[in-house]
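Hey,

The postdoc asked me to send both predictions to you directly instead of through the lab channel. I've kept everything plain text so nothing gets mangled by the mail client. Protein one:
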Amino acid sequence: MTEPLEETTGNYNVDEIVEADPQLTKIVTPTDDWTYWAKWIGNFFLIVGTLLTNLSLPPFNLVFTAIGLTLWAAVAANWNDRSLVVLNVFLLGTVMMSLGQHIKEFFL
């Protein structure tokens, strides 16, 4: 059994805590590169796009959603997370088809 960690200055070393308790895992989301901001900005655009969809405001809802999905697809590609890439690229394709339909109806 492992011994409890001693508090020295009120600060804990996360690596030591994780090593001491195998049930804990470290947060793996990077916070020191562009993906940190891209995912939060992408979330903002997806939330606004969803709200605009509920307010029946096309094509603005599609534009906001497409921006959010594009940001998340870029983040997923940078993280080499295939499931997120597939999800976001597929959803982006469906949103772009709907946006194309709105543009077609507007000009024709």
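Protein two:
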Amino acid sequence: MKSETLSAKIMSKRTRRGSDLRDFLKEQGVLDEVEERAMKQALALQLAELLKKNELTKAEMAARMKTSRAAVDRLLDASNTSVTLATLGKAARALGRKIKIELAPA
């Protein structure tokens, strides 16, 4: 019986640790910014992988998107969070993909 109680305490502590970081970031007022940067970083990584898989250069991607190479650089820059839906749409179409956006509960 003691092992079950100890195990329950360990699991309880483990599940709280993840939420503690979220709570900390929220208390500091940076949770939204951190989540936005994480999403942009994941998107930039996915786009870079698709460029590599399709053997496309940034210049070729820009031509497909009918935009500048600088715009592609901004799209692939994980620290640049000012990407528009229009630009994402162009990038998706250029790679034969589509955008899927979902509003999830906060």
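Summary for protein two, as requested: The chain has one domain: 2-94.

Thanks,
C.
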